[in-house]
Amino acid sequence: MIAAIIRWVKAEGGQSITAEVADSNLASVALLRKFGFSEDRKTRYKKWGEETYFDAHYYKLVLAHPCCKVDVGDGLIVAKNRNIRRKQK
Fold this sequence. Notes:
Blueprint: H1 2-11, E1 16-22, H2 26-34, E2 38-46, E3 53-62, E4 77-80, E5 83-86
Antiparallel strand pairs: 1-3, 2-3, 4-5
């Protein structure tokens, strides 16, 4: 699904994608990093309908900058230090 969102944003001329994720949501953080997202800034958010607050970060994927090209064709991608390569099947 993330690959489809990235393709759609790129096709519409978008320059970046931002996602807010709770620090304790390790699976979501790992998934965003897999697709090349990096920490943008720290935040806190309130759970809807409750008095519960979470430490969180905004993660950002820059699409327009030439050093951060993301290929989300039919294969999976792996991003490390802005070097993006296809994951071997």
